[in-house]
Amino acid sequence: MKTRQKIILFFVASLYSFTPAVEAKSAVEVLQNDFVFPNEIIGLPTKLSDFKDLEINYFTTNDDVKIAYWEAGEGEPIIFIPGWSANGAEYINVMYLLSKKYHVYVLDPRNQGLSQRVKYGNRISRYSMDLKQFVDHLNLSQVNFSGWSMGASVLWGYIDLFGTQSIKTLSLIDEPISIYTHSNWSEEERLNAGGMTTSAEKMIAAYSGTPMSEDIVDMSVMARYIANDSLYFQNSEAFASATIKNNFDSMSQVLFDHAMNDWRDVVSKKIDVPTAIFSGDYSHNVRSQQWANSVIPNSELYIYTKKEEGDHFLAFKNPKKFTSDLDSFIERNK
């Protein structure tokens, strides 16, 4: 009888522990098309199918949103969280370079990239929960995380909610600590926080194309985006444009919450892991990145020059330098 009970218990346990195999699909298969990059660059693919192990997969959050993620390579994991309106397609060069050594993931946030469009959960805290559920989906215990622009805010929310136990290293790319400038701040507080608007509503309107005074919204980021002066950036943006169909109304739902969060307490009190901070001479965020570097223990600051494409899009305009710097940083902190 005892033997029979053991067999039954083993059978039941196996049913609950069984996880169906997820059929991995190549990016070309998912997108149903190959893509030829406009510029041939040595050391990078000339067409999408040259990136043979690039996959696009999906998981579903606990509030029933289908989230896409891009995946390539083997080894130590790195998870990239894109900025507002961005997606895995824009990371094509970064992924290709790093996948030679790392298992690289890029998460498309809800309402962005290839992820589902929904009218709920459009808060940074929910995006941070999506990231937590992605890490759980992958069954990873420690990860190198990298957040660019709004992606850094998603990571600050993640740290605020879940701590740093799962974070091996952290890299943050050119994100103000508080986008919104409070009326009672001194100029020093504004610069340290990186405040770039006095009205979240007008910032959203400006991003939709409404002309706006620079005194209300700092639009220098858009000027650097339009300066499409990097062959790498031309390739990744052309691929993203051909691959992703953005919807401003869907993407804009998170912008107000994103703009109004002040992360100075998280940045100054809750980050206790090796941290790399990236910015550049073209960026208006340098002062806030210097402040973050001054308050985060064991942090390193990288300021790219103008010749090194040191602006808000530095990882995509100069992916070889960025991936080399990130790799060296991770290696030093093993």
UniProtKB/TrEMBL annotation:
<keyword id="KW-0732">Signal</keyword>
<dbReference type="Pfam" id="PF00561">
    <property type="entry name" value="Abhydrolase_1"/>
</dbReference>
<dbReference type="InterPro" id="IPR000073">
    <property type="entry name" value="AB_hydrolase_1"/>
</dbReference>
<feature type="signal peptide">
    <location>
        <begin position="1"/>
        <end position="24"/>
    </location>
</feature>
<keyword id="KW-0378">Hydrolase</keyword>
<dbReference type="InterPro" id="IPR029058">
    <property type="entry name" value="AB_hydrolase_fold"/>
</dbReference>
<dbReference type="GO" id="GO:0016787">
    <property type="term" value="F:hydrolase activity"/>
</dbReference>
<feature type="domain" description="AB hydrolase-1">
    <location>
        <begin position="77"/>
        <end position="302"/>
    </location>
</feature>
<protein>
    <submittedName>
        <fullName>Alpha/beta hydrolase</fullName>
    </submittedName>
</protein>
<dbReference type="InterPro" id="IPR050266">
    <property type="entry name" value="AB_hydrolase_sf"/>
</dbReference>
